[in-house]
Amino acid sequence: MKQLLLTAALLSGAAFLTNAGAQTAPAQTAPVQATPAQPTPAPALAPTAPAPTAPAPTVPAPTVPAPTAPAPSMAAPATPAPAAPAAAQDPATLVGRVGKENLTLGEFERSFRLAAARVVNAQGVPFEASYLSEFAAARPDFLKQFVRDRAVYQLARARQQADPAVLDKQVADARSGFGTDEAFTQALNATGYTDTADLRRELERQLIVGAYLNSVQDRFTFGDALIAGYYNLHRADFAREAEACVKHILVPTQAEAQAITKDLAGGADFAKIAAAKSQDPGSAAQGGDLGCFGPGQMVETFDTASFKGPLNAVQTVQSQFGWHVLIVTKRSDAGTLPLADAAPIIRDQLGKEAAQKYLDSQLVRLTTESFPAVVTVPAPAPTSK
Predict the structure, then answer these.
(1) Residue 311's domain spans which residues?
(2) Which residue, among 332, 325, 334, has the nearest Cα to 302 in the 3D structure?
(3) Least C-beta-crowded within 10 Å: which of 27, 183, 290, 345?
(4) Beta carbons of 319 and 251 less than 8 angstroms apart
(5) In what order do the strands lie in the sheet with 289-293?
(6) CA distance linking residue 189 with residue 181, whole number of Å
(7) Are 209 and 250 found together in one domain?
(8) Do residues 329 and 198 share a domain?
(9) Residue 270 phi, psi (nearest 5)
(10) Number of structural domains, the chain?
């Protein structure tokens, strides 16, 4: 059962947690520490309205997901059981094809490592290569996702190019938050990257695929009458509980929290401080942004500050995880989302449905092959308790 859950987590990470618009480089953080239970921020290409839709077109894009309180069934194991020995394979071994493009084992391993790192990081745990054995059963199924993602990338490369200057700046910005090359490399490794070149490749793919998917979605427009009709037919889908949108910086001591509060009062940038000092590695990489959540989803002190504290003002609260310097950026009451607020959500959702259909029509024109036997490895031996 554990292997089944881990497989599901990995594959959902490849298809859901990843998206073409949410790429972030590792943020400088202190050692990982558990943080309050919090919702995973919705990916940029995932439908916001809850009405059933076809999956939005996505492509693997390693991020540093906001860590959640570890779920017992899916948390990364503290001491993963070793896999049965397997013969080393040549990284150039063919695992699939998209048209005339060969896909190698080395490329597959890289994508698999990044996907596994996302699942592990989502539990608030730094990635280590030893965890890969826990996801061994997912490898054949992940190959299908890998081949599809490479097909999307092939379509995108035919129409888009990444600006080297933009890539240089993104890599430089990522490195600037770290005091030493060693610290930066450690952060890269903890999020599944092997080195700076690995990060640059992923950023390049992100720019190309993101631009392509956005260009596809931008082709589709929807009039006000259609949007209003959809809203009236799906009004129940826009019922909302009370919600607060919050960003925070987690530090170990009250003195550190007070110092940060003073810096913010002096005009310091919240996102930069979060990236440099927050002990929540996922939200730090997002400038401290936790996204939006409902009542009772956070620990009590944090929940109280989020739903009863002042808006757009710095607050400091303590929890069992440390001291939180937080700002509530938005708060909404329970009720039905008004049409004016629902309209952009509906347009985005309908655009994604149309873009998905277009993308599928393009993908079926490509000849693809995959060879799951090449990527299959023995699952880890069961641990004794």
Answers:
(1) 242-333
(2) 325
(3) 183
(4) no
(5) 289-293, 243-251, 322-332, 314-319
(6) 12
(7) no
(8) no
(9) -60, -45
(10) 2
- My answer on whether 86 and 147 are in the same domain is yes
Residue 96 C-alpha from the chain's centroid: 26
State pLDDT tens for residues 227-283.
999 999 999 999 989 999 999 999 999 999 999 999 999 999 999 999 999 998 878
Q: Distance of alpha carbon 229 from its chain centroid, rounded?
A: 33
Residue 345 lies in a domain: no
78 within domain boundaries: yes
Cα atoms in the Cβ-side hemisphere of radius 13 Å centred on 123: 21
Residue 347 lies in a domain: no
Q: Report residue 344 as tokens.
A: 């952009």
Dump the DSSP string for 271-309.
HHHHHHH-S-HHHHTTTTEEEEE-TTSS-HHHHHHHHHS
Instruction: Please list, in sequence order, all residues whose beta carbon lies within 8 angstroms of the beta carbon of residue 270, skipping any fewer than 6 positions away.
Output: 247, 249, 264, 287, 288, 327
HSE on the CB side for 295, CA within 13 Å?
9
> Rounded CA gap, 285 and 65, in Å?
8
**pLDDT tens profile 277-332:** 999 887 888 899 999 999 999 999 999 999 999 999 999 999 999 999 999 999 99
Q: Is 206 left (phi over 0), alpha (psi -120 to 50) or beta?
A: alpha
Q: Is 26 helix (H, G, I), strand (E, B) or coil?
A: coil
Residue labelled with tokens 């938050």: 177
User: Within a 10 A sphere around the Cβ of 178, how many other Cβ atoms?
Assistant: 19
Residues 257 and 325 sit within 8 Å (Cβ to Cβ): yes
Tokens of 61: 């894009």
Is 380 part of any domain? no
Are 259 and 178 found together in one domain?
Answer: no
**Predicted confidence (pLDDT) per residue in 125-169, tens digit:** 889 999 999 999 999 999 999 999 999 999 999 999 999 999 999
Same domain, 136 and 197: yes
Q: What is the CA radius of gyration of the chain?
A: 22
